[in-house]
## 1
Amino acid sequence: RQMQRQEQFEARIAAGEFIEAKDWMPEHYRQTLLRQISQHAHSEIVGMLPEGNWITRAPTLKRKAILLAKVQDEGGHGLYLYAAAETLGSSRAQMLAALHSGRAKYSSIFNYPTLTWADMGTIGWLVDGAAIMNQVPLCRCSYAPYARAMVRICREESFHQRQGYDALLTMMRQGSDAQRAMVQDAVERWWWPSLMMFGPPDEQSPHSAQSMRWGIKRVSNDRLRQQFIDATVAQARVLGVTLPDPDLRWNPQRQQHDHGAIDWSEFWRVISGDGPCNQERLGARVQAWDDGAWVRAAALAHAAKHSPAPAQ
Ligand code: 3HC
């Protein structure tokens, strides 16, 4: 019976069908999606912190309003994704407990500090640009609730990337030499960590093979990384910044850019909790959870008072 359902499931995936929450699915498929979607949600929520640092320091009211809207979007993306993860049988409290205890991951990129205003434009351009590359294929993920959440998220991500690039163009074209240097410095600090967002090299990725067989991962880590590099080199040229990789050059045979080695020891160190800002980011999330305990208690007390008494 179990084998028959497993074979039917594999046949549905092979036929390109989408799986709904009520459909039968292998336990490993469920666990893989729960891991990925909850960590994606954590990434969105933790991702609000680096940018939140600059909402009160934005140079104009216009930039402040845009940054505020973007950070609010990230919060909304987190809620869509926690809701999608809950369809797999986990609760919000369980997922957040995994984050706060350090058991669950969130995107490595948010463990770096945002030192200047140019970091805001650079995060929009490179980090949201990489996120779009990684998230567009997820709109075709075989798990339908995740795919539907990603369609909405991708629409907002393109605004995030555009506003970042626009802010940098303003600094590069209308700014002072000091502001141009500020942009170049930010690009040098964010370039390599942005490439790491796509995950380890395919041959060092324990989940990729299975996730690709199940239609969860439609394009491999390395291929998405390469697409991002190829798309970004031209944008950097228009912007007038130099990407910090002396080995970056167009390879006519490959019709792609060759690039320098990525420091994977930094990547594994950062995702195991030893990045520049891991303690600060997780501390902020735990503090927010603790500070919000009274709100949760009040909401539960209110619900208990007003919910119908259980039938005798
Ligand atoms: N940061 C943190 N952990 C990472 C990582 C990264 N950049 N890349 C890989 N990892 C972790 C994986 O989670 C896995 O650890 P785990 O088993 O404890 O979960 C391990 O490294 C091995 O990596 P794999 O490639 O084998 O794992 P996956 O098949 O899950 O691929 C992934 C990694 C490509 C990140 C995939 O999980 C994915 O596509 N996730 C959904 C997209 C996502 O999370 N994007 C975050 C971007 S930031 C964001 O969305 C906010 C935006 O608005 C700016």
Note: Residues 144-174 form the longest helix (31 residues).
## 2
Amino acid sequence: ANAHVGVVGLAVMGRNLARNFANNGYTVALYNRTTARTDDLMAAHGDDGSFVPSTTIEEFVASLERPRRIVIMVQAGAGTDATIESLLPHLEEGDIVVDGGNAHYEDTRTREEALRAKGLHFFGVGISGGEEGALNGPSIMPGGSKEGYEAIGPLLETVAASYDGTPCCTYIGPDGAGHFVKMVHNGIEYADMEFIAEAYDVLRSAGLTVPEISAAFREWNTGDLDSYLIEITSEVLDQTDATTGKALVDVIADSAGQKGTGRWTVQIALDLGVPVNTIAESVFARSVSGHLDLRAAGREHLSGPAHSFTPEDKAALIEDVRQALWSAKVVAYAQGLHLIRSASEQYGWDIDVAGVATIWRAGCIIRARLLERIRSEYAAGQLPTLLAAPSIAAGLADASDGTRRVLARAFEAGVPVPGFAAAVSYYDAVRAERLPAALIQGQRDFFGAHTYQRVDTEGTFHTEWSADRSETRLD
Ligand code: 6PG
């Protein structure tokens, strides 16, 4: 019993994480339900480090030093529960079970409670960075007991990515906090990807070629927009299809998939009453893209504007789109971080937003230059919203004209920009002196006697709309 850590589930993420532990000098116990995967890993990488493969779960558990540290890397859902069930009879008090999948945080809360009752530490750990990240350094978002973190945290911090020497892994909070933060990470990822797609679409419909757009992204990646997603976008755009000789992006079917984390982000935001309209529009945009019958009907029956969209000055348009992209991205982060703060209050997680920004700076899919700015703004003090941070507010003010020009042009030309529009609408709503919500309150009072408050005096009021229209004060 000398393995430092064990990995159950050796599909690509589990396999790469196991190799990452081994590359960092840990002895790694391995178990997979079908032994072929374990054998494959041993055949290909068994000599890269110290592995202890097992063919039964008993053997696997027995090969671990105590307290045992076991990382489950199976498909989220029933597979996770089945794995936990199979481990339980062999575990002892103080052992640590980590779920590294994209679990729903409510499931993580349930599992944590059940395992805590048995004297075990259960960790719901968000791991971002895809296959490459799992092998070379992901961003890791662990949620569970503080005590358990002392035993598992140092290992996770060692295998995580690092930014200026700081690991992209930090204790997030109890029970579901880590998986919640990973879910919001994915919600922001959806928004970021949607904005990039809209930026591309606006430029494309203005007549720019795919190579010109790719060059614009590459250029943007040297400035404020510097990020992994911008970088891979130019690579995707550069790819030529071997069969047709066209840009690959022109032969990929235009309906986007999704596995659930973006949708969960929006569902939970609705429950907590936190406006995340950029993320919601990003989920809906993927959903619209997949409704092929709806789109066929739309193409057949609906006409667009007569306007075509030819810019006089390509360079100026590219700069405007860059500004629209940056502003929208900032709004999506503001919304995601707001959601994290609300959930943290709701569940008593005490999540440090600066800490979250710290571990998103490298390793994860949304890693971006902007995150260092977000970290330093939150480290400098509490913020009611990211948008209120001085450097962010100033950046948004600078980008405002360009952003609005992009929206105006897109609407005139009939290019769908739901993400950009959501971002600007949110920005304008939160900075408005007065909102038309006053009129909505009037309507609610009219048809349902739902009452309203006044700006000039305390109390709850109702107008007798269908009688003499006099106002009464109800309390
Ligand atoms: C990551 C990614 C990863 C994955 C998601 C989203 O952080 O490494 O977010 O978790 O890409 O599963 O995938 P979908 O787009 O399929 O929902």
Note: The two ends are 70 Å apart (CA to CA).
